[in-house]
Design brief:
With 426 residues, this protein is α/β, with parallel strands linked by helices. It has twelve helices and 23 strands. A four-stranded mixed beta sheet has the order 2-15-17-16. It has a four-stranded mixed beta sheet with strand order 4-5-3-14, with helices on one face. It has a four-stranded mixed beta sheet with strand order 6-7-9-8. Helix 3 runs parallel beside helix 5 and helix 9 packs parallel to helix 11. It is globular, with a radius of gyration of 21 Å. The mean pLDDT is 96.
């Protein structure tokens, strides 16, 4: 297995430009494909996840043109994919697999969707149950409740509200919201239980509105899409820098000096921008601009007790900050970590202990007490999970070397991560 050794560092200083947001990139690609008209998408993330979405849209007959660096011209198909018979391989790209599942359920074709082994372990049953309520014709090709899937033409019926659990993955609700306009019927979705990761739903609603479909929302429990809704191209759209990716560099600034990230500002549509608020709670000084955020070193990093429902991905970076804090940090409401690229709660607990931390792992929380002394040359398993690799890079700022297994797993969202990180740590 390939390994990367990060040398001890005591300072982080510099400026970097973020890659595009994965969440915004894949949503925008799909909406542009479903719209009438042609959309120019700029600053699109170049990564494994977006590559899987682009490949799938091309297979479905959507005309795509890469006309400049990280810029794509998408000729929309007016909610009618030309190819009605296709097999799609989606790797481990949840932001492609879930929305395409729902969209193809109402696309009047015959489709099979599969991915890597880990994707076939990531539950999708709650989304399929919701789609079945709407009249979708979807069958499991392997284990019940998990991919791969077979999708056949459906006769949608939206006369009753669709009920879906809110406490498993916000991507399920996102998939439903984006797909239901294809039915041309009025559709109502009722969320059962607490909706996790609400900011990701806000991204979805914001982008749908940019493409001409406005969803009526009654709190976080009920969503209504009007009959005859139709996606219309906004002609041009820019993808924000990825707020989750910003978290590693902002954290480095608070731990070790001063770091500025370009491509995202205080008014970002991404919920993970609020990670900066958590850094302030921990003692960091944060400075905002229209299209940048700067993090300054804390004189003392404070332990926190935080409900992380609003920043589920960036909360992983807070687990790294906890290693440098003045006491025990508790991160709560993070059960969604268990259904990501790996079981992140379990993986995080195992790897944090390797560097010397004391860890208590719960069903939906983690408690982290920092090491008395950091363990040098700890070998970190990354579980084919980009965020595990990026998170643990921060350990080198404790002045110890750390070894990252399979560093190329960052290709999922940030292929140049270690190059960018290496430029700011000294």
């Amino acid at each position: 297995m390939e390994q990367l050794t990060l040398l001890p560092a005591i300072r982080a200083d510099g400026r970097m430009t973020l890659p595009g947001s994965k969440s915004i990139s894949n949503r925008t690609l799909l909406l542009a494909a479903l719209a009438t008209g042609t959309t120019e998408i700029r600053d699109l993330l170049a990564s494994d996840d977006t590559a899987r979405m682009l490949e799938s849209l091309e297979t479905l007959g959507v005309k795509l043109e890469n006309f400049a660096e990280n810029a794509w011209r998408v000729t929309g198909c007016g909610a009618n994919f030309p190819n009605k018979n296709a097999d799609l391989f989606l790797g481990n790209a949840g932001t492609a697999f879930r929305p395409l599942t729902a969209t193809l359920a109402f696309s009047k074709g015959h489709y099979q969707l599969s991915g890597v082994a880990r994707m076939h372990e990531r539950p999708i049953g709650d989304l399929i149950n919701a789609l079945h309520q709407a009249g979708a014709n979807i069958n499991y090709l392997g284990n019940e409740g998990f991919p791969p899937l077979k999708i056949s033409p459906a006769d949608p019926d939206l006369s009753k509200p669709i009920q879906i659990r809110g406490d498993v993955s916000s991507q399920f609700l996102t998939a439903l919201l984006m797909a239901l306009p294809l039915t041309k019927q009025q559709a109502t979705i009722e969320v059962i239980g607490e909706l996790i990761s609400k900011p990701y739903i806000e991204i979805t609603l914001n982008l749908m509105a940019k493409f001409g479909v406005k969803v009526k929302r009654d709190g976080w429990q009920r969503f209504t899409i009007e009959a005859n809704s139709q996606y219309i191209s906004p002609n041009e759209i820019y993808v924000e820098g990825d707020a989750s990716s910003a978290s590693y560099f902002l954290a480095a600034g608070v731990i070790g000096g001063k770091v500025c990230v370009d491509g995202i500002g205080q008014h970002s549509i991404q919920g993970d921008v609020r990670f900066a608020e958590a850094l302030t709670m921990m003692g960091g000084k944060i400075e905002y601009g229209e299209n940048y955020i700067t993090a300054h070193k804390a004189s003392l990093i404070k332990a926190i007790d935080l409900d992380c429902n609003h920043i589920p991905d960036a909360a992983m970076t807070l687990a790294m900050m906890a290693l440098f804090a003045d006491g025990t940090t508790t991160l709560k409401n993070i059960a969604s970590w268990r259904v990501k690229e790996t079981d992140r709660l379990s993986a995080m607990a195992i790897e944090l202990r390797k560097v010397g931390a004391t860890v208590v792992e719960g069903a939906d929380f983690i408690k982290i007490t920092p090491p008395v002394t950091f363990t040098p040359n700890a070998v970190i398993e990354t579980y084919d999970d980009h965020r595990m690799a990026m998170c643990f890079s921060l350990v080198c700022l404790a002045g110890v070397p750390i070894i990252i297994n399979d560093p190329k797993c960052v290709n999922k969202t940030f292929p140049d991560y270690f190059s960018c990180f290496g430029k700011i740590v000294q």
